[in-house]
Specification:
Elements (H helix, E strand, L loop, with lengths): L12 H14 L5 H9 L7 H15 L4 H11 L11 H9 L4 H11 L9 H7 L1 H11 L5 H9 L12 H5 L5 H6 L6 H15 L3 H8 L7 H10 L1 H5 L3 H6 L8 E9 L2 E3 L3 E10 L5 E12 L5 E13 L4 E9 L11 E9 L2 E11 L1
Parallel strand pairs: 2-8
Antiparallel strand pairs: 1-3, 3-6, 4-5, 4-7, 7-8
Helix pairs in contact: 1-2, 2-3, 3-5, 5-6, 7-8, 8-9, 9-12, 12-13, 12-14
């Protein structure tokens, strides 16, 4: 089991004292004791996002009532905070108290995003005035700063984790097409990751729309090819033929699966399994293979639910063999708990299950 501290401990009491001290440094009238009392109230029971919201509210109680004056102080505070994630209290402040002042607030979100991210905050403006906000975000997609370009994509993801969904974009992603098109070959990996995740979001509701767009891209361009590969990961895990074809692996794999082993075949929670097998080509031509595996996790009810994991993409020459292996720890996550029982494991090649083995998990 991991000994790493919970993410919410980013906003622990030491961090609250840091925020209070830095705010006092740029605004001498700030009541740091009152801030700490408000921000730390029932802190242990709050999630990371609840803590973030609480800190922003606690700042508001100690800053000038005039929104413009408060923003001036937060602009000075931004470079003094010692954590990118913690700096997200600043765009959160804008979302909570600045929706009445659209132009000034959107400019503030653009400024603050370079210190962490304004991805959560900008969604409140999209929900309040979508046409106006998406137009600003389109201009951001052409900005010279990669943090701003990334915000243009990340902020309007239809299914952004830890935020509310943008139902209108889940129904019709067309309004973000120009933004994604501007960023489809971006020089920044930070931006490309966002574009890929955005497109992967869209595949959950509009897979054909994404495939239609990507089929029009020049995938000989390395940056665009990288985005497409990562954008299609969910569809490839499902064995979608169009997605596999775009990645050059649309044909049925002509291989023999040999020596499939999982060791050990019985483990306890926290232990590791080792998966290994050999793929031997039976084709007279070279072939591209996308190799994944799926673990059928036992649920509390006793049924199972499959989760697909990426292994590798490879080119296999005629008659060639390749050994594939992977080690994986079986441990609990906040998003997935494990239960005792037989866990089947499938080897997937170009979306097709070529073999199955498994392991037993004890309490």
């Amino acid at each position: 089991m991991s000994d790493a501290p919970a993410l919410k401990e980013i906003f622990n009491r030491d961090r609250l004292r840091h925020i209070a001290g830095e705010t006092l440094a740029v605004y001498p009238d700030f009541d740091s004791k009152a801030f700490l009392a408000r921000a730390s109230k029932e802190l242990d029971g709050l999630s990371v996002m609840q803590r973030l919201n609480r800190v922003s509210q606690s700042l508001h109680a100690g800053l000038p009532e005039d929104y413009r004056a408060a923003l001036d102080i937060l602009y000075e505070l931004a470079p003094r905070l010692n954590s990118a994630f913690v700096s997200m209290i600043l765009p959160e402040y804008v979302a909570l108290y600045g929706q009445h002042d659209f132009d000034r607030s959107m400019q503030a979100l653009k400024f603050f995003t370079a210190f962490g991210s304004s991805e959560f905050a900008v969604r409140h403006f999209l929900r309040r005035d979508f046409p106006r906000a998406i137009e600003v975000m389109h201009s951001w997609s052409l900005d010279e700063n990669p943090h701003v370009r990334r915000l243009a994509s990340e902020g309007c993801r239809p299914r952004l984790p830890w935020s509310f969904r943008l139902e209108n974009l889940m129904a019709d992603p067309a309004p973000v097409l120009d933004i994604l098109d501007n960023l489809k070959a971006d020089d920044s990996l930070y931006v490309r990751k966002s574009v890929a995740n955005h497109l992967n979001d869209i595949t959950k509701d509009n897979p054909d729309w994404v495939l239609d767009q990507l089929e029009g891209w020049s995938l000989e361009t390395p940056h665009s090819a990288w985005i497409a590969r990562h954008a299609l990961r969910s569809l490839i895990k499902k064995g979608d033929v169009r997605a596999l074809t775009l990645m050059g692996a649309g044909k049925k794999a002509q291989v023999d699966l040999q020596n499939l082993k999982i060791t050990p075949d019985a483990i306890s929670l926290g232990d590791r399994i080792n998966l290994s097998f050999t793929l031997k080509s039976t084709s007279v031509e070279s072939q591209r293979l996308i190799v994944d595996y799926a673990i059928h996790y036992v649920k509390k009810s006793g049924g199972t639910s499959a989760k697909v994991f990426k292994l590798k993409t490879l080119e296999l020459a005629p008659g060639q063999s390749v050994n594939v292996s992977r080690e994986q720890q079986v441990r609990n996550f906040t998003t997935r708990l494990h239960y005792a029982g037989r866990h089947e494991l499938d080897v997937l090649v170009n979306g097709e299950c070529l073999g199955r083995s498994g392991f037993d998990l004890s309490e």
